[in-house]
């Protein structure tokens, strides 16, 4: 498992570096990301069957619109949410999660880290080439005659000083890049842990609340919604500020469950307004 995880990370890093090497602008990277995500979501939603079959099946355009809306967390749909089956709700949850601001910011950090890693490699090659040039010059100088050294002494000193100055600057730049890489790596871990913590804690609280409150539990029973799917979907949608809920009435059906609303309010803040301050 460790070997697979390591090879996967290396392959993912290589692909990102390859994209950065092509000089693709971040705008086009993000556009391509959301287009691919929306198309994959559309295929997943199309392959999986809605629970209203055979009486009703959404049109392909409606499904594609819902996929794009979920991937861009715009919360617009031309299909009632209760039409989607449990599997389709899971796919929508993944789309919302991957399209949320927190996850996309994490991906931006990976792109920045790959770009800086590439700069580090270029600097290391520059330092190595400078060291090799100095070693060659030193070897040639040691084999020359005293008279040649006497006549070219000042020239050699200037060249050596230039090389040493270049190497010193390159090493300082390399140290700065190392600090940036460590900072980005640490920030990536913080964002990953932050996201995982909010989603796990939030969905757990929603599940526990619905399990112990009969009125909320009855709503899911009447609408034939899976408890864990509903909890995860609602938490991810709230955290990503999407607004989708697996019920046709959105959260209006839970207007008597004020505690559930209080559980969701912090998730809205943590995924949007308080996202940046929480990382400080």
Automatic annotation (TrEMBL):
Coiled coil: none
Bilayer-spanning residue ranges: 27-48, 89-109, 186-210, 230-247, 259-277
Topological relation to the membrane, as annotated: Multi-pass membrane protein
Compartments reported by the entry: Membrane
One family name in Pfam for this protein: TrkH
Assigned keywords, A-Z: Ion transport, Membrane, Transmembrane, Transmembrane helix, Transport
GO CC annotations on file: plasma membrane
Chief localisation class: membrane
Sample GO molecular function, one term: sodium ion transmembrane transporter activity
Record keyword Kinase present: no
InterPro entries in the cross-refs: Cat_transpt, TrkH_K-transport
PANTHER family membership: HIGH-AFFINITY POTASSIUM TRANSPORT PROTEIN-RELATED, POTASSIUM TRANSPORT PROTEIN DDB_G0292412-RELATED
Similarity annotation: Belongs to the TrkH potassium transport family. HKT (TC 2.A.38.3) subfamily.
Name of the protein in its database record: Sodium transporter HKT1-like
Gene: LOC107792158
């Amino acid at each position: 498992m460790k070997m697979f995880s390591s090879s996967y990370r290396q392959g993912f890093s290589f692909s990102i570096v390859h994209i950065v090497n092509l000089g693709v602008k971040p705008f086009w990277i993000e556009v391509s990301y959301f287009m691919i995500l929306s198309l994959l979501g559309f295929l997943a939603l199309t392959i999986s069957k809605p629970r209203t079959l055979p009486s009703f099946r959404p049109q392909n355009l409606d499904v594609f619109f819902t996929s794009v809306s979920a991937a861009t967390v715009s919360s617009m749909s031309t299909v009632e949410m209760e039409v989607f089956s449990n599997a389709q709700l899971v796919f929508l949850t993944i789309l919302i999660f991957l399209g949320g601001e927190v996850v996309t910011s994490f991906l931006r950090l990976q792109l920045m880290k790959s770009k800086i890693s590439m700069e580090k490699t270029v600097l290391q090659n520059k330092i190595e080439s400078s060291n090799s040039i100095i070693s060659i010059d030193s070897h040639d100088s040691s084999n020359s005659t005293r008279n040649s050294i006497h006549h070219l002494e000042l020239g050699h000193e200037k060249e050596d000083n230039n090389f040493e100055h270049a190497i010193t600057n390159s090493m300082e730049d390399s140290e700065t890049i190392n600090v940036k890489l460590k900072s980005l790596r640490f920030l990536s871990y913080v964002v990953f842990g932050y996201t995982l913590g909010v989603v796990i804690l939030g969905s757990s609280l929603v599940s526990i609340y619905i399990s112990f409150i009969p009125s909320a539990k009855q709503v899911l029973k009447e609408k034939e919604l899976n408890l864990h799917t509903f909890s995860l979907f609602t938490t991810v949608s709230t955290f990503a500020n999407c607004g989708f809920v697996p019920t046709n009435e959105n959260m209006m059906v839970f207007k008597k469950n004020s505690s559930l609303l209080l559980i969701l309010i912090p998730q809205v803040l943590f995924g949007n307004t308080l996202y940046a301050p929480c990382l400080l």
